């Protein structure tokens, strides 16, 4: 259901993602490391905004949804709700070991499945936590830029 | 009187150990009640811990919180070593202390930055996070990772800080001290920051005792509680340092305590690396073959306060029970004292002062609680309120000068 747009509007998608990407960040049940590294991308050393990539406050403004942390049963519904609210086409990036697979928390009693079991994921950035360089490279490559 | 307004804060804030949903009930601009919900970050760590061996548990507890990713292993190591009844080598003690204090510096810098961001001073945010980078570089040099250091194990540490790395650490410490000077000067002398934070979110000594608050939150209200002094562990009794306290209990005092604590941390690290140079390289861990049955309690002073780990061992290779209490658990309850009766713009600051910071306010958009039919202010408006207030004060300050 969620991935209909992918087959229909590929050309439109290329057009949409050609310019500045606005990013919305969703942290599930994470240990904060990925969240901090994502924020770290904004600060002077890495300066994400030079690529036109900006963190935005509302999913309705976003082109990219960054998801990190393991998703527990309580987060699951909120993630789905956010995905439904997002304007399509939307790129979804799973960040960190927990976002990609559940990581060390995959065996936990509250684990509700890795991100790609809940919403379609376009890219994975593994690492625990991935370095800011890796996050920037991942998002920039997704946008078709040479990094 | 006026219409009651519900303001949800949370549930997803990246800089809290435990994401919570705060609900501020407001009458006009005054906060009349505050409630919170937890469980958004429940990962079942205590249960997971029972399925892992003692060596593996360290990697798990490290991932309780990315910012405190040394204090949890620290407390767990203290607990398990109490069961095993071992005394780790001096070199391991010093290395543990260096890692713990580096973490305190990076965590406090992170908080200062976020507090600045919240006040509307994005320059402070950018500066503080820029100065935090060299600390992370040191971590990368010493441990191989910027966060989640994996340095601890039962009976010592996994990696040595070789003597040839020490001059680099010493040089970096002197640089960091200068940067903290700069930052402290900028924060302490700014009239707008004074106006925004003095007398805001005051917690009295009695409040701290009633709510059993810990860490910088307690120390800013004149209670000199610090596990490093009260229940000394690792190399803390072997070096000279003092517990920083302030009396006022407001947001400014909390900032002051954290800024001044960074100097103590730098001084502790310098003393530790001096001591490391005199000790034999490589003697960093004991070989521990089995953990006997028993119970152990471990405490450590995290950047936010006391971390407590309770471990029951049945003699097997994994804990039979593992209980964890993080500092924010008690500190969060103080919000009822510090926020009720304040304006919304100040309440948000008081919440941040305890250091479940919320810079990623954008994620508040994830919350839609319409069941009560109350009007909901969104995150953007909340931040805007705080920024506007700073702007007003800035204007009036500029007008007087």
Q: What does this protein structure show overall?
A:
The complex is a heterodimer of chains A (147) and B (401). Chain A is α/β, with parallel strands linked by helices. Chain A has one domain: Rossmann fold, CATH 3.40.50.12280. Helices cover 37% and strands 14% of the residues of chain A. Chain A has 7 helices and 5 strands, in the order ααβαββαβααβα. A 5-stranded parallel β-sheet of chain A has the order 2-1-3-4-5. The longest helix of chain A is centred in the middle third of the chain and has 13 residues, at 73-85. The radius of gyration of chain A is 14 Å and the shape is globular. The model of chain A is unreliable at 5-9 (pLDDT under 50). Chain B has 401 residues and is of the alpha+beta class. Chain B has 2 domains: 4-41 and 334-400, Enolase-like, domain 1; 45-329, Cytochrome-c3 Hydrogenase, chain B (Orthogonal Bundle). Chain B is 49% helix and 12% strand. Chain B has 15 helices and 9 strands. Chain B has helices spanning 45-50, 54-62, 71-84, 90-119, 122-143, 166-188, 191-197, 205-211, 216-219, 227-230, 251-278, 328-331, 335-339, 344-353, 379-400, and strands at 4-9, 21-27, 30-37, 152-153, 156-157, 294-302, 305-313, 321-325, 375-376. In chain B, helix 4 (90-119) runs antiparallel to helix 5 (122-143), helix 4 packs antiparallel against helix 11 (251-278) and helix 6 runs antiparallel to helix 11. The longest helix of chain B has 30 residues, at 90-119. Chain B is globular and about 65 Å long. Classes of the chains: A alpha/beta (147), B alpha+beta (401). The interface between A and B is large, with 43 and 47 residues.
Descriptive terms for the model:
heterodimer; A: 147 residues; alpha/beta; Rossmann fold; five-stranded parallel sheet; 7 helices; 14% strand; B: 401 residues; alpha+beta; Enolase-like, domain 1; Cytochrome-c3 Hydrogenase, chain B; 2 domains; four-stranded mixed sheet; three-stranded antiparallel sheet; 15 helices; globular
């Amino acid at each position: 259901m969620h991935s209909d747009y992918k087959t229909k509007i590929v050309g439109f998608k290329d057009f949409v993602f050609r310019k500045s990407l606005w990013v919305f960040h969703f942290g599930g049940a994470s240990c904060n490391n990925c969240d901090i590294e994502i924020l770290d991308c904004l600060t002077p050393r890495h300066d994400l905004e030079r690529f036109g990539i900006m963190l935005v406050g509302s999913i309705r403004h976003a082109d990219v949804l960054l998801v990190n942390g393991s998703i527990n049963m309580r987060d699951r519904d909120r993630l789905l709700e956010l995905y439904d609210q997002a304007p399509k086409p939307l790129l979804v990036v799973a960040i960190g070991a927990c976002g990609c697979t559940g990581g060390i928390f995959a065996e936990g009693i509250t684990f509700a499945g890795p991100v790609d079991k809940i919403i379609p994921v376009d890219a994975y950035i593994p690492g625990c936590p991935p370095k800011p360089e890796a996050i920037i490279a991942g998002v920039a490559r997704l946008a078709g830029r040479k990094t | 009187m006026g219409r009651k307004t519900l303001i949800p804060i949370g549930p997803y804030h990246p800089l809290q150990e435990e994401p919570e949903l705060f609900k501020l009930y407001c009458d006009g601009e005054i906060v009349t009640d505050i409630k919170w919900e937890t469980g958004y970050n429940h990962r079942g760590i205590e249960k997971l811990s029972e399925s892992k061996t003692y060596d593996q548990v360290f990697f798990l507890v490290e991932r309780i919180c990315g910012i405190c990713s040394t204090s949890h292993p620290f407390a767990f190591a203290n607990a398990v070593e109490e069961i095993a009844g071992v005394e780790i080598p001096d070199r391991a003690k010093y290395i543990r202390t260096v890692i713990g204090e580096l973490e305190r510096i990076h965590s406090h810098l992170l908080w200062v930055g976020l507090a600045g961001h919240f006040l509307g001073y994005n320059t402070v945010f950018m500066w503080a996070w820029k100065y935090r980078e060299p600390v992370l570089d040191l971590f990368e040099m010493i441990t191989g990772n910027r966060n989640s250091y994996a340095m601890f194990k039962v009976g010592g540490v996994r990696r040595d800080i070789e003597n040839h790395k020490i001059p680099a650490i010493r040089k970096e410490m002197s640089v960091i001290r200068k940067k903290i000077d700069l930052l402290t000067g900028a924060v302490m002398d700014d009239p707008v920051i004074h106006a925004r934070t003095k007398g805001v979110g005051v917690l009295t000594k009695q409040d701290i005792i009633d709510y059993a608050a810990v860490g910088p939150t307690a120390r800013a209200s004149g209670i000199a509680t610090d596990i490093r002094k009260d229940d000394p562990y690792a190399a803390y009794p072997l070096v000279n340092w003092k517990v920083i306290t302030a009396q006022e209990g407001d947001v400014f005092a909390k900032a002051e305590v954290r800024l001044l604590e960074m100097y103590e941390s730098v001084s502790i690290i310098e003393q530790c690396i001096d001591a490391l140079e005199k000790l034999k390289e490589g003697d960093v861990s004991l070989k521990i073959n089995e953990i006997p049955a028993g119970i152990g309690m471990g405490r450590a002073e995290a950047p936010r306060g006391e971390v407590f780990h309770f471990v029951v061992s049945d003699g097997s290779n994994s804990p039979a029970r593992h209980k964890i209490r993080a500092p924010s658990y008690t500190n969060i309850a103080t919000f009822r004292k510090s926020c009720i009766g304040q304006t919304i713009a100040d309440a948000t600051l008081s919440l941040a002062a305890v250091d479940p910071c919320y810079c990623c306010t954008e994620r508040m958009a994830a919350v839609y609680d319409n069941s009560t039919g109350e009007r909901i202010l969104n995150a953007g408006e909340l931040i805007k309120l705080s920024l506007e207030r700073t702007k007003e004060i800035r204007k009036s300050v500029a007008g007087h000068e």
